[in-house]
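Today's session is about reading a structure prediction critically. Students often jump straight to the picture, but the first step is always the sequence itself: look for stretches that repeat, for charged clusters, for runs of hydrophobic residues. Only then move on to the predicted structure, which in these notes is written as discrete structure tokens rather than atom positions. Here is the chain we will use throughout the hour.
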Amino acid sequence: TTLCMQVWALSQGLMNGISSKFSAVPIRGTHTAGGQTDSGITIAQAIIALQHGRAIPCMRKVLINAVCCFGMVLGGFLAGRTHKKWGIMTALIPAGALAFSATLLPKLIAPPTSPRKARSSQAALVPPACSKEKEEEEAKRIK
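Below is the predicted structure for this chain, in token form.
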């Protein structure tokens, strides 16, 4: 069954890669491997860009995907360790972390600025290589 699961995972990755390369669909056909497919495509584009002496594409999606994957692995490991001791109450830990990150964390990390200044400073925080327009231009140029 392990070989069967590996072949299935490969087929899902191929389906995502083909659908993202040959269509204008912004989402992937399979949601579980979509982030990894996006990361793989971006890493491949970066390697090709480096070989040709061009600027590498924005690696923001790759970093976010890596953090999410690490969080899922760590969460699964910790859940397995703590469930034996605390049972169903273990679910309160990620629920509390989610509540904190959705309510208090944005207020703690937000810069103390007026709404007008916030809009202009937000645009300044996005590096030119990671702007949406730059990504779209790069995607058109690669096609």
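Discussion point for the tutorial: The CA atoms of residues 75 and 94 lie 8 Å apart.
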